[in-house]
Amino acid sequence: APSDPDLVERARAAKAALGDRVFVLGHHYQRDEVIQFADVTGDSFKLAREAAARPDAEFIVFCGVHFMAESADILTTDAQRVVLPDLAAGCSMADMAVLAQVEKAWERFASLGIASEVVPVTYMNSSADIKGFVGRNDGVVCTSSNAETALRWSFEQGTKVFFLPDQHLGRNTAVLKMGFELADCVLYDPHRPGGGLTDEQLRGAKVILWKGHCSVHGRFSLDAVEDVRARVPGVNVLVHPECRHEVVTAADFVGSTEYIIRVIDEAPAGSAWAVGTELNLVRRLALAHPDKQITFLERNVCYCSTMNRIDLPHLVWALEELVAGRVPNQITVDASTAHYARVALDRMLALP
Ligand code: 13P
Ligand code: SF4
């Protein structure tokens, strides 16, 4: 639906009033009505770098989800304030790894005598607490665009990796990019005693995957891939690595949202694509490339509901509050957590 013209005008006016004092970041999964006001759009890796590269902006308005705003707070200066237009914009995957559970797993590794050889790696899609844990324990953050590099770095530091919280990104990267066997990976379930793993399984594993997943990408199915191949001759299947292993294995191209955009940009006219990622992005890609046939991989997968919490009314409210001299929905990470989370984030930003 087209945006409410009154709200569009108010957003424009508030941004103009704030000028360079505000910088608006927009993740690729945001609604059209919000993305039109982003100064920069990107995947989570690009947005983390953009946040760190704007020390002069007094306010960073983050149109994305909570863990992204936390990372922005960690990577910006103390004087800068990070605003999340709706505090309910969380991430179900990030919520699947709670610090107390992760510490319990680590204690188990320690009691087995393997903790010193395990390198913790957390996907960007995790709370600042988890990033802090990883930083304290000599690990690294990764995103979907650098997971392979981060895993290679980790296997130079130790002999095992503990990958949080997305089992799919961890498994897909280990098996499809690094040549591990599926049998080298075990799944640690925080809701089962001992993670549901025997001592032998933990000792033998190369990659210990946390049992978390994305509630959007986890829903794409192998059936959908087979179905679209049967319906659309010559179709290219392009998916995000948060999809299940069988889906990624059956796809033709796999990568982060920035990668997906680049592949579609470079695709020849007339080519056909079935894209397995969040619907706002797929819709925009289809509209921007009328000369290519772009479809959504699976009909019954929907928007990321928490990304969609950020809508134009919330953005207008946040901007107008800033104009009025108040800082709404500020996201702050406590100093000690931020320190160690920054260590893990800086390690990621320094990867080749
Ligand atoms: P990227 O932005 O790293 O592609 O991750 C996708 C995602 O699910 C963000 O929430
Ligand atoms: Fe979290 Fe998935 Fe939504 Fe990204 S798309 S914010 S990983 S639930």
Automatic annotation (TrEMBL):
Gene3D superfamilies: NadA-like. Binds 1 [4Fe-4S] cluster per subunit. Its cofactor is [4Fe-4S] cluster. The keyword Iron-sulfur applies. It comes from the Bacteria. Keywords: 4Fe-4S, Cytoplasm, Iron, Iron-sulfur, Metal-binding, Pyridine nucleotide biosynthesis, Transferase. It is an enzyme of class 2 (transferase). Its EC number is 2.5.1.72. Signal peptide: none annotated. InterPro entries: NadA, NadA_sf, Quinolinate_synth_A_type3. [4Fe-4S] cluster binds at C91, C214, C304. GO terms for molecular function: transferase activity. Pathway: Cofactor biosynthesis; NAD(+) biosynthesis; quinolinate from iminoaspartate: step 1/1. Catalyzes the condensation of iminoaspartate with dihydroxyacetone phosphate to form quinolinate. This is Quinolinate synthase. It comes from Dactylosporangium vinaceum.
